[in-house]
């Protein structure tokens, strides 16, 4: 068994991007790669991760908050995030467990802020409240043309024999998703020390390798562990 690399603290890694870019798959693969190095790590998601946050997730993705507007949705996401951070993310990081999260605060900034038009002052205020100082150590933004992403999702649904219904955000039109993509790219440009943009238009295996290379570059102690 490989020896776990010595590091001063657990790391907090988030995955971001538009609909259908493969975040959930890559979160699972990164977690497996960390476990192969005997690193204590867990995965979670947003909105969600705790019972109260999962209840808010269901309410929003069912479209029940849509008529309230993007501002109200941003507040709901922040409420879910605050519970998620205090009840799950912070305790695990303090215990030395790496946390890999499928979406985090950048999604609120991209979806409700840059795409939904919510005032930046409100977004920043909600971030201050909900994050409680827990900014990710690394954010991986998976980038893909929305039209290609939707075709990929449709193909997978056909292969799995599923009926596509779409949640609250998947039902938005193509132009909306193009603005969303630009929103994530703007976040990356404004946070170059934290964010890494990786094209998702490659095979799942190739994408996994690219992501692992980016993670190891950010946290070189992982390379020392893999060579033990």
- Strand residue percentage: 5-15%
How big is the Rg?
17 Å
Mean pLDDT: 89
The largest sheet is:
5 strands, parallel
- Going by CATH, the architecture would be 3-Layer(aba) Sandwich
Shape: globular
Helix and strand pattern? EHEHHEHHEHHEHH
Low-confidence stretches: none
Count of domains: 1
Under the CATH scheme, which class?
A: Alpha Beta
- Give the spatial strand order of the biggest sheet: 2-3-1-4-5
Stated plainly, the CATH topology is called Rossmann fold
What is the tally of helical segments? 9
Tell me how many strands there are: 5
> What separation lies between the terminal Cα atoms?
9 Å
> What class, by secondary structure content?
alpha/beta
| Fraction of residues in H or I helices | 55-70%
Could you give the topology of this structure?
Layout: E1 12-17, H1 23-36, E2 41-45, H2 51-61, H3 70-94, E3 98-102, H4 105-115, H5 120-131, E4 138-143, H6 146-160, H7 174-190, E5 195-199, H8 204-218, H9 221-226
Parallel strand pairs: 1-3, 1-4, 2-3, 4-5
Helix pairs in contact: 1-8, 2-3, 3-4, 3-5, 4-5, 4-7
Structure commentary:
It catalyses: dTMP + ATP = dTDP + ADP. Keywords: ATP-binding, Kinase, Nucleotide biosynthesis, Nucleotide-binding, Transferase. Phosphorylation of dTMP to form dTDP in both de novo and salvage pathways of dTTP synthesis. ATP binds at residues 17-24. The chain has 228 residues and is an alpha/beta fold. The longest helix is centred in the middle third of the chain and has 25 residues, at 70-94. It is globular and about 50 Å long. It has nine helices and five strands. The mean pLDDT is 89. Helix 1 packs across helix 8 (204-218) and helix 3 packs parallel to helix 5. The chain has one domain: P-loop containing nucleotide triphosphate hydrolases (Rossmann fold, 3-Layer(aba) Sandwich).
């Amino acid at each position: 068994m490989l020896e776990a690399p010595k590091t001063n603290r657990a790391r907090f890694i988030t995955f971001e991007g538009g609909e259908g870019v493969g975040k959930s798959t890559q979160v699972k693969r990164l977690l497996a790669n960390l476990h192969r190095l005997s690193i204590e790590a867990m995965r979670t998601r947003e909105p969600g991760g705790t019972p109260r946050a999962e209840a808010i997730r269901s309410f929003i993705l069912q479209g029940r908050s849509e008529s309230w507007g993007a501002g109200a949705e941003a507040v709901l996401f922040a409420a879910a995030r605050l519970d998620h951070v205090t009840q799950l993310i912070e305790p695990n990081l303090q215990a030395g467990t790496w946390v890999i999260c499928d979406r985090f605060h950048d999604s609120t900034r991209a979806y409700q802020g840059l795409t939904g038009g919510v005032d930046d002052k409100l977004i920043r205020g909600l971030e201050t409240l909900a994050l409680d100082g827990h900014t990710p150590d690394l954010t991986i933004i998976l980038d893909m043309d929305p039209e290609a992403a939707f075709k990929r999702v449709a193909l997978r649904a056909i292969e799995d024999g599923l009926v596509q219904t779409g949640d609250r955000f998947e039902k938005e039109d193509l132009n909306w998703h193009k603005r969303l993509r630009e929103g994530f790219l703007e976040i990356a440009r404004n946070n170059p020390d934290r964010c890494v943009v990786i094209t998702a238009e490659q095979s799942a295996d190739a994408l996994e390798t690219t992501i692992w290379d980016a993670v190891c570059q950010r946290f070189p102690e992982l390379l020392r562990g893999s060579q033990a």
